[in-house]
Design a protein that fits this description.
Blueprint: H1 7-12, H2 17-27, H3 38-51, H4 56-65, H5 67-70, H6 81-90, H7 94-111, E1 124-134, E2 149-158, E3 163-171, E4 191-194, H8 201-209, E5 213-217, E6 224-229, E7 238-246, H9 249-254, E8 259-266, E9 271-277, H10 284-292, H11 295-307, H12 318-341, H13 348-357, H14 365-373, H15 378-382
Helix pairs in contact: 2-7, 3-12, 4-6, 6-12, 7-12
């Protein structure tokens, strides 16, 4: 793959350039633009993500000092701080959102042949949201509480490859998590894992009408009557396995069908969990194992905040913040596709660390990853002088 290209140029090959040009024409993103095109903005912000820059002046200084090495990445002109700030402020963030959606499709195609979960054959997703705190004085449009601002990233994660198949960014606390179930569009016969914040029986019933299944944690005040009880194997942590229907009038009206109720105790931690699901055909242990995979989305949020620059923003407007978040997602997807396509043995976290310090080196990404885990030869160790 490496034909004298820098590591950064190799990574940018996983960004669909033709579709990017199509989106630029669709949104008129280069209208009256002389130096900082949409692609230049994307390259600069991706560089800032991968190298963990702390401000636009920092980004511009570092990029201009390496101008000759970044020419083949598409940067044809020097970048100034004010020009990059204007681009983040004015260029429509939907351009980068649509680019991320296209990259999601490509990433899903890479991970489709080899599913990791053995419990289900159907697609498995997890849905949750994370809050990114902001300063209320600098971001008044994202009012969250009386003392702070925030944005929420509502995410649906494909648990096969940790790929965000859907992400909606909302400002402040205007949109409750459960309302996003109305816009959830998944393939037929998919199963989505939800936390208790998504319990709305009318919306869950509408989800099943769209030929999708769910596993969700039950609330403690659940009122129900048992229709049928299955035998339980307490040695595996299953203490109750029932088919139930709601006894409350409102709940029964919202969800008129029967549900599966599983009471499971995690042996190492002695923590009790109660799950609800519309899947009567699955075993109780399988339902518990499916919900356990929901933890991947929490790890995804933690990984995203620790490894990509989405907690320090380069602009204060809503357009600048959303542009930065979507470009960060594009960088994550490019790294995911590179990790899978090149069959890199190190973890994704280690790969990003390698990219950070070797971004403009002219060597292949696969060779860099191999050198990172290559053991030191014995003669090199024996040649070192013994100090003690």
């Amino acid at each position: 793959m490496n034909l004298g290209q820098s590591v950064f140029a190799q990574l940018l090959q996983f960004v669909p350039s033709r579709h990017f040009d199509y989106l630029v024409d669709q949104y008129g993103a280069n209208y009256r633009t002389h130096t900082c095109s949409a692609w230049s903005q994307f390259v600069c912000m991706a560089y800032a993500q991968l190298t963990h820059r702390h401000g636009l002046r920092d980004v511009a200084a570092c990029i201009n000092s390496q101008r000759s090495k970044l020419y083949h990445c598409g940067l044809r002109h020097p970048i100034s701080r004010s020009t990059l700030a204007d681009a983040n402020e004015r260029r429509d963030w939907h351009l980068f959102e649509q680019l991320a959606q296209r990259m999601v499709t490509s990433a899903l195609a890479l991970y489709a042949p080899a599913r990791k979960d053995t419990v289900l054959v159907q697609p498995l997703y997890a849905m949750d949201s994370t809050v990114v705190d902001l300063c209320l004085k600098l971001f008044p449009w994202a009012h969250y509480r009386s003392t702070k601002a925030a944005i929420k990233a509502h995410t649906v994660l494909d648990l096969n490859g940790a790929i965000p198949v859907m992400m909606t960014i909302t400002a402040g606390s205007n949109v409750a998590d459960v309302k996003l179930l109305d816009t959830l569009q998944l393939p037929a016969y998919s199963l989505v894992v939800l936390d208790r914040g998504y319990i709305d029986y009318a919306r869950l019933y509408a989800l099943t009408q769209r030929q999708c299944s769910f596993v969700v944690r039950a609330k403690s005040n659940l009122q129900f009557r048992c229709v049928h009880a299955f035998d339980c194997d307490r040695s595996q942590g299953v203490y109750s396995d029932q088919v139930i229907e709601f006894s409350g009038d409102k709940a029964h009206q919202d969800y008129p069908k029967v549900l599966r109720r599983v009471r499971y105790i995690d042996m190492p931690t002695c923590v009790e969990y109660v799950y609800l699901s519309d899947r009567i055909d699955l075993s109780a242990l399988a339902i518990a194992q499916i919900y356990r995979q929901r933890w991947q989305i929490e790890l995804f949020f933690k990984w995203l905040k620790q490894n990509l620059n989405i907690q320090h923003f380069f602009g204060n407007s809503e357009n600048a913040v959303k542009s930065q978040v979507w470009i960060a997602i594009c960088v994550y997807l490019a790294a995911v596709m590179a990790h899978k396509t090149l069959q890199i043995s190190v973890s994704l976290h280690t790969l990003l660390q390698i990219l950070e310090v070797n971004l403009l080196e002219k060597t292949s990404i696969a060779d860099l990853a191999s050198l990172a885990i290559e053991p030191m030869p014995d003669h090199a160790v024996s040649a070192q002088r013994c100090l003690f």
